[in-house]
Design a protein that fits this description.
It is a single chain. With 244 residues, this protein is of the alpha/beta class. The chain has a domain of 149 residues: Protein tyrosine phosphatase superfamily (Protein-Tyrosine Phosphatase, Chain A, Alpha-Beta Complex), CATH 3.90.190. The protein has eleven helices and five strands, in the order ββαβαβααβααααααα. A five-stranded mixed sheet has the order 1-2-5-3-4, with helices on one face.
Length: 244
């Protein structure tokens, strides 16, 4: 199986199948996918995605992003779109408010670090719903705009819940750097270091999410149960649905 699904309109559409768990299981192929925005899919891309058996798209983008770039699957007869991203941004968009400055790269880094610390809690409803849909047998795409931050955290948490080792989870997260095409989302005046801080997947960003979980909850397992509301039967169903 190919991990990256070649599509014309998006560049970071990936299958999470094939990863080994700590207990000897394997994540099923063609069950859960992660992607950048689905607004740019061509008609042929839509057919390809439907041919994978996908029936649910979890959209983690903010309300203004969904409005400007609507999902191609809205109103689709096979794929249900769950608009689970926050309707309002918790803070001003870094890109929209960007101004060139000597410390722009460090400001961008700090902005991303803080976002990652907040994602597991701001998106608790979305991440919990995603895992319950998987437990119920849905074939799901989870995506944001880049498929890097909000969706990257979601994918990481699903893999950890399935028992995939943390090292492998980080390897999957970093694949965005190999595939995602920013498609001109940079702003005028951005130096290369600032571009890298904003648009790259970095280990320290995902570490920030896991550190925040462990600081507040002690373990990811407690987070899954107490914050996402996933009880033992649901977690068993998740693993049964997503593992071979």
């Amino acid at each position: 199986m190919d991990r990256r699904i070649e599509l014309q309109g998006v560049t970071n559409f990936r299958d999470l199948g094939g990863y080994q768990t700590d207990t000897g299981g394997t994540v099923k192929w063609r069950t859960i996918f992660r992607s950048d925005t689905l607004s740019s899919l061509t008609d042929a891309d839509v057919e390809t995605v439907c041919g994978l058996g996908v029936n649910t798209a979890v959209d983690l983008r903010y309300g203004d992003e969904r409005q400007v770039e609507p999902s191609r699957f809205l109103g689709h007869d096979q794929v249900e779109v769950l608009e689970l991203g926050l309707n309002e941004r918790p803070s001003a968009s870094f890109l929209d408010s960007f101004e060139a400055a000597p410390n722009a790269a460090e400001t961008a880094r700090s902005y991303l670090m803080e976002n990652y610390r907040n994602y597991p809690f701001l998106y608790a409803n979305a991440y919990g719903t995603l895992m319950r849909r998987l437990a119920g047998g849905d074939r799901v795409i989870v995506h944001c705009t880049a498929g890097k931050d909000r969706a990257g955290t979601a994918a990481a948490l699903v893999l950890v819940a399935l028992g995939v080792p943390r090292e492998t989870v980080f390897e999957d997260y970093l694949l965005t750097n190999n595939y995602w095409d920013r498609a001109g989302r940079e702003r005028p005046g951005m130096d290369p270091e600032t571009v890298a801080s904003i648009f790259s997947a970095r280990e320290e960003y995902l570490h920030a999410a896991f550190s925040a979980i462990e600081e507040r909850c002690g373990t990811v397992q407690i987070y899954l149960q107490d914050v996402l509301g996933l009880d033992d039967p649901t977690l068993r169903a998740l693993r049964a649905a997503c593992l071979d």
